[in-house]
Design brief:
The protein has about 230 residues and is α/β, with parallel strands linked by helices. The chain has a single domain (about 5-229), classed as Vaccinia Virus protein VP39 (Rossmann fold). About 25% of the residues lie in helices and about 25% in strands. The chain contains 6 helices and 10 strands, in the order βββαβαβαββαβαββα. It has helices at about 55-65, 85-90, 105-115, 155-170, 185-195, 220-229, and strands at about 15-20, 25-30, 35-40, 75-80, 95-100, 125-130, 145-150, 175-180, 200-205, 210-220. The strands form 2 sheets. Strands 6-5-4-7-8-10-9 form a 7-stranded mixed β-sheet, with helices on both faces. The longest helix has 13 residues, at about 55-65. Residues about 1-5 have low confidence and may be disordered. The structure holds S-adenosylmethionine. S-adenosylmethionine (SAM) binds near residues 83, 131, 132 and 160.
């Protein structure tokens, strides 16, 4: 592993603070790419893992900052977006973003979008239900970027995530997939091995202390498949 790829993960910019709002009791604040993001989280909402910001999401945001990646006029979709932090940053960086998760997560994402994205940007942002493997036919296959952070930790989800990525991508699509490898025992590693049979996969950044890898992936074409035979 190249030492320069091992990064420190960004910290919250301020303390958690109580917000006088029935939707979000806690707001986490982050400084990234020159933006201050205020992300409502609610661990007691009963909406599952998606009501928190996971560290791979922070790793992906920080990777975009480090690399100076901009998304102007790019069509982007995020899977299992949770609070929506990654997509919100990508929308502020110019992307035309579809933020997806299970239906019960969408109201929280919409709140975070309205807190953080100026109304002039809002036409670029859609919040939609996408349950992996189930709703995929309601989405096209012409995305420039697909984003995923900490979504591969359950064994049964691996084929569903694979099916969803295969449906959404074409040979020009770039997937950025950040994963905390230590979650779900070996499921995350197994999932990435499975995906690497269908996508060319490159480790582009690692946050060693947190065991987070950021992968860049693109669909195997017949040419690249031949090279692997
Ligand atoms: C560990 S959280 C990560 C959330 C966010 N990506 C982050 O890094 O902060 C996993 C996310 O995947 C979503 N998820 C789990 N199973 C799903 C499924 N079958 N279809 C769509 N989303 C799913 C959860 O609702 C949750 O938001």
């Amino acid at each position: 592993m190249c030492e320069t790829k091992v990064m420190k993960l960004m910290q919250k910019a301020s303390f958690l603070r109580i917000h006088g709002d029935d939707d979000f009791k806690i707001i986490d604040c982050y400084q990234i790419c020159g933006f201050k993001l205020e992300i409502g989280v609610d661990p007691s909402s009963g909406r599952g893992y998606g009501s928190l910001v996971w560290e791979a999401a922070l790793g992906l945001c920080q990777y975009f900052e480090k690399e100076g990646i901009r998304f102007s006029d790019k069509k982007v979709i995020e899977l299992g977006a949770g609070t929506g932090i990654v997509s919100i940053l990508v929308a502020l960086l110019g992307g035309d973003v579809t933020i997806t998760d299970k239906p019960e997560l969408l109201s929280g994402i919409e709140r975070n979008v309205s807190f953080n994205i100026p109304s002039s940007f809002k036409p670029q942002v859609k919040v939609r239900a996408l349950r992996w493997g189930l709703d995929i036919n309601q989405f096209p296959s012409d995305y420039d970027y697909i984003l995923c952070s900490d979504i591969m930790y359950i064994h049964d989800s691996i084929p569903l995530i694979l099916e969803t990525l295969l449906h959404l991508s074409n040979e020009k699509t770039t997937i950025y997939f950040a994963s905390t490898l230590s979650y779900g025992k070996n499921v995350t590693r197994l999932g990435h091995v499975t995906l690497s049979q269908y996508f060319q996969t490159e480790l582009v950044c690692r946050y060693g202390f947190k065991d987070i890898n950021v992968y860049r992936m693109c669909l195997n074409t017949p040419t690249t498949l031949q090279l692997h035979i």
